[in-house]
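INFO batch 0412 | record 1 of 1 | parsing
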Amino acid sequence: MHDILIRGGKVIDPSQGLAADRDVAVKDGKIAALLEPGSGGQAQVTVDATGHLVTPGLIDLHVHVYPHVPLGVDADQLCISGGVTTMLDTGSAGSNNFDAFRRDFIDKAHCQVLGLVNLSRAGLVASELGELMDRRYADPKGVVATIERNRGVAVGVKIRAGTHIIGAGKDGWDNLREAIQAARDSKTWLMVHIGECPMSIPELVNELSPGDVLTHCFKGGSTRVTDDHGRIFDDVRAARERGVEFDVGHGYGSFNWSVVEAALEQGFEPNTISTDLHGMNLHGPVFDMPTTMSKFLMLGVPIERVVEMSTTNPAKTLGLQDQIGTLKVGTAADITVLEQIEGRFAFFDSYREERVGDTLLVAAATVLRGKLLPGGGGRRMRFLAGEAR
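INFO prediction complete | emitting tokens
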């Protein structure tokens, strides 16, 4: 007998090239089998996913879940409400406070939380002042030591490359290059937040290496991945071709319909979809990972690609593609059941511009390492009278 059987859903697992109706069986915390519909047999708990999508647990590559810094939110609440089973905190803590962040929150979370170490030793504790406006706060050696102490949890380096954060001119460049060097010295990778940067985007991406990530890749403003005519910069395309990755990082001020539409029209898709969830956007315009995914459905990206950008690709970015972002038999049972609600839905970018879509994805049920979580859209407790179960 299986522990959990998710039956009747359409399984989308890009890691296996699978998009077909399957029953998913879970035993002892792992994926036990992907079965033809109706052949799953008995289980202690059955989830009816008829008409729903069943995917690997969603992976959000950009969140802020350190409650001791401004706007930090609770990781486990994001997991239950949004179907995210692995999330990456992107630089909420630096060398002075990452160990405390891990001890007090990361290690206590039920979902898997990984972290990037901010080049600023204070992280985002005083982010409203600009965490690297004073160059004394840059601590590349401390970043490397922090990653070494926290291997497997601290997986890379973060810098927010806005002029009001890292400074202008030489200070801005020195901070960026120290963050790059910390990533190289720690044998990890760098995520760069782009804001109104002290350098152009072509100049910035030319400093990055394969495996590095540029987040907020569809922001508006003066420093964008598109030129003044809406064309993707040649240097941005070249960076993509050599292995630099581009992450959505929707956020409160970093997702612009005009930029993303222009990029998609030119065949420039993001590598990964992520939310940049924090206290200012949790109740709009971001809400959660499935809502962010829904925006790309509205923009015409096929569901298989949207799921790939939300599971398989971020798992590869993290170097964990054999462990998460997959429903392969024998891997940890992280599973998201997504309900596709049809109607007319208003979606907003970070600049409060509206677009209308006809499909809203909602996390109906989440399995985290083989345990069905007590939350979601309600499919886990919806049984029809007289139905076999």
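INFO post-check: The chain has a mean pLDDT of 95.
INFO record closed
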